[in-house]
Amino acid sequence: MSKQIAVRLPEDLVKFVDALVAKGEVPSRAAAVVRALTHEQRRMRIAEDVAILSRSRVTDDLDELAEYGVHQPIELD
What we know:
The chain is mainly α. It has one domain (11-70). It is 62% helix and 0% strand. The protein is built from 3 helices and no strands. It has helices at 11-22, 29-55, 62-70. The radius of gyration is 17 Å and the shape is elongated.
Protein backbone atom coordinates (compact mmCIF):
# COMPACT_ATOMS: atom_id res chain seq x y z
CA MET A 1 0.00 0.00 0.00
CA SER A 2 1.26 3.48 -0.72
CA LYS A 3 0.35 6.87 0.64
CA GLN A 4 0.51 10.14 -1.23
CA ILE A 5 2.51 12.92 0.41
CA ALA A 6 3.68 16.35 -0.68
CA VAL A 7 7.30 17.44 -0.34
CA ARG A 8 9.13 20.66 -1.13
CA LEU A 9 12.47 20.25 -2.85
CA PRO A 10 15.13 22.78 -3.74
CA GLU A 11 15.05 23.79 -7.40
CA ASP A 12 18.34 22.04 -8.18
CA LEU A 13 16.95 18.71 -6.93
CA VAL A 14 13.78 19.17 -8.97
CA LYS A 15 15.90 19.75 -12.07
CA PHE A 16 17.94 16.65 -11.25
CA VAL A 17 14.79 14.52 -10.81
CA ASP A 18 13.26 15.90 -14.00
CA ALA A 19 16.48 15.06 -15.88
CA LEU A 20 16.28 11.46 -14.62
CA VAL A 21 12.71 11.24 -15.89
CA ALA A 22 13.62 12.84 -19.23
CA LYS A 23 16.47 10.33 -19.73
CA GLY A 24 14.12 7.46 -18.95
CA GLU A 25 16.11 6.37 -15.89
CA VAL A 26 12.92 6.51 -13.81
CA PRO A 27 9.31 6.59 -15.01
CA SER A 28 8.23 9.50 -12.80
CA ARG A 29 9.24 12.02 -10.17
CA ALA A 30 7.63 9.80 -7.55
CA ALA A 31 9.70 6.83 -8.70
CA ALA A 32 12.88 8.89 -8.38
CA VAL A 33 12.02 9.86 -4.82
CA VAL A 34 11.13 6.27 -3.91
CA ARG A 35 14.42 5.05 -5.40
CA ALA A 36 16.43 7.64 -3.46
CA LEU A 37 14.69 6.92 -0.17
CA THR A 38 14.97 3.16 -0.65
CA HIS A 39 18.70 3.55 -1.30
CA GLU A 40 19.10 5.65 1.87
CA GLN A 41 17.08 3.16 3.91
CA ARG A 42 19.28 0.27 2.74
CA ARG A 43 22.45 2.30 3.35
CA MET A 44 21.38 3.01 6.92
CA ARG A 45 20.52 -0.65 7.58
CA ILE A 46 23.91 -1.73 6.27
CA ALA A 47 25.65 0.88 8.41
CA GLU A 48 23.78 -0.42 11.47
CA ASP A 49 24.83 -4.00 10.67
CA VAL A 50 28.45 -2.93 10.21
CA ALA A 51 28.36 -1.08 13.54
CA ILE A 52 27.03 -4.19 15.28
CA LEU A 53 29.70 -6.35 13.67
CA SER A 54 32.46 -3.89 14.53
CA ARG A 55 31.44 -3.88 18.22
CA SER A 56 31.34 -7.67 18.34
CA ARG A 57 34.27 -9.36 20.01
CA VAL A 58 33.41 -12.63 18.31
CA THR A 59 35.45 -13.45 15.22
CA ASP A 60 34.34 -16.10 12.80
CA ASP A 61 34.22 -16.88 9.11
CA LEU A 62 31.73 -14.06 8.46
CA ASP A 63 34.20 -11.28 9.23
CA GLU A 64 35.73 -11.38 5.75
CA LEU A 65 32.27 -11.50 4.17
CA ALA A 66 31.16 -8.45 6.17
CA GLU A 67 34.29 -6.52 5.17
CA TYR A 68 33.68 -7.41 1.52
CA GLY A 69 30.01 -6.36 1.73
CA VAL A 70 30.82 -2.94 3.11
CA HIS A 71 32.63 -2.03 -0.10
CA GLN A 72 30.03 -3.33 -2.56
CA PRO A 73 27.60 -1.03 -4.39
CA ILE A 74 23.92 -1.38 -3.56
CA GLU A 75 21.78 -2.33 -6.55
CA LEU A 76 18.24 -1.01 -6.30
CA ASP A 77 16.66 -2.68 -9.28
